[in-house]
Every structure is written in C-alpha cells, then in structure tokens.
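Supplementary Note 3. Input sequence used for the single-chain structure prediction.
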Amino acid sequence: MNKNDPKDILGLFFTISQQLEYATSEKFFYDINPDEFDSILFVGMGGSGVAARIIAELFNNKFKTPWSFSNDYLVPEWISEKSLVVSISQSGNTEEVYFSTEDAYRKNAKIIIITSGGNLEILARKLNCPIIKIPPVIAPRGAFGNLFGTLLNFLKQMKVIDVETKEIEETIALLEELKSEWTKDDSLPWRIARYLEKSYPMIYGEENYMNSICFRWVTQLNENAGILAHFAMQPEMSHNEIVGWRDKSMPAKILFLCGNQVHPRIALRREIMKKIIPFEYKMIFPPSGLLKWQEAFYFLHLGDIVSVYLAYINNKDPFDINEISCLKMEMGKK
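The predicted structure, written as discrete structure tokens, is reproduced below.
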C-alpha cells in the first residue's frame, strides 16, 4: 500500500468487478408496476449521480421509457403521478437528493430510493416508498460498481432495458483482467498519470455516450488527485473549443479517449485535429471487440486508477476531500 493512501482507496477502486457481480445478481422486491409510469427521472449528485447519468447515456437507444436526469434541489415541473423518480445516494446524506425526493413526493410521483442508509433511508420509511439497500463504502466515489450494477439490475427487472447476462459476465471478466494488469508499475494508468503530472488535463471524448465518462474523469482527478481538469466532446468541441487552443500559455496536456466504434466522420475529425493541436496529446483506445458499454467501463475504470496514481505522484491522500467536508459542515449549520 502507498504511504499516501492509508485508507487504500486504490484497493477500493479495484473492487469494481466484485461490486458489479454482486449488484447484478441481487433480487429486489418492490411494489412498482412498470405499466403505471411513462417517464423516469434519475436524481443524484457526484459519484452517485454519475452512475445514473452513465447508464442512461449508454443505454439511451435501448430505453423503453423516456428518461431524464436531475442534480438539483427540486425535480422538474413535469413530474407527476405518471413519473418514476429514482433517487440515488450512496451515503444517503446528499441534501440535494433528499430535497428532490420530498419534492417528487409532493408531485405524487412514484419513488424508489437507492442508498446504503443515512437520512434517505429514514425518508423512505417516512414516505413509505421502496428502498434498495446497497453496501456502505468509505468513499462513495469508489462505489460505482455497486451503483451501476444495482441500477442496471433494477431497470432490467422492470423491463425498461434488456441486457444479456453474458454481456455482464464478460464485463466482469474484463475488469478482473485489468486489475492484474493495472497494478504493475509500468502499466497504462501509471504512464498516463506520469504524463499528466504538473499539467492541466484536457479530457476529450467522442460521441454522446462518452460524455459522462469524461465528466467522471474530471471529478476523479478533482477529488483523488486534487487538481483542476476539463473535458469536452467531439464533435461539439470542434465547432468552438479548438479556437481556444490559441492560448499557448496554459500548461495543458490533452488525453483523447477514443472509441473503436465511433462514426467515421468523428474518426476523421480526430485525425485532422491531431495536426492542428499546439499542445502535447495522447490517444487512448480500448481493447478491440468490446460492446460500447464495456468500452465505457474500460475508460471509466482507467480514469479511476489514473487519478489515484496521480495522487501518489502529487503526494496527496486520495481519501482527503477536506474542502467538500468543510462545505457540508458549514451548510449543515444553516
């Protein structure tokens, strides 16, 4: 274990395959009829909310029910008794999710809460709404496998999306292979972490299904490595952000997260942009033959491990998020 990681956050991130296996094998019991709602709203913040964002984007074309996402204190005005609101908080103490759940209840929405406990569990008992309990962890950002797997399992059981068991098993096997490979000193995440050292990372993704993956990279670099970072997506960024590259004073390094199944015009933009970028860049491709959502897991897990290794390089404890704790403490006084 690294001396800067006394809580073994790295080890927590490497449990993602076990988390996914456990969460997707669980059987849930709840009194919700899928025929009674015509829309789904996912509510969540931070590491808990990103699991919902990613699953919604990845399976967007497979959803049999229209969906939306909220990370605010209130739910949208269109929420009604025909809506299913899925409130997600690993800790159960996320105040935005708590207030949104109360607002959804006032609008007569059907509600299900996914949490390990905390105030949300108390609220679920008070409102008499279904709750799916997930295991507690020392850092919610390290519970992605639990959250994603639970959501996937729930939506599959509700017949909102279809996912083959074999696809899940192959994803778990991939994550197990990566664990044995990425713990080595010369592994890909170590090389990326050394590349990003003392820089302002620019994480660029391709097509909409990578949007929340890139967002996850930035938030993990923020929390674990203690640095600022930025992300943008193709093709949108080539209509605006490339002009900003004229500012050569920024200590930027670019990381392209490149899917193997992108639209050919996206691949063409990638090649042209390589010729006009004035900054150092690296292009990362996943193994061939993966489904899109398996590619997404590859990139997401890679970002988690890179952020911890960069924390080691920066002599930062990846568990330390003192600024967030201070903010929550001050908010709690009001």
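The longest strand covers residues 83-89. The chain has two domains: 9-163, 182-313.
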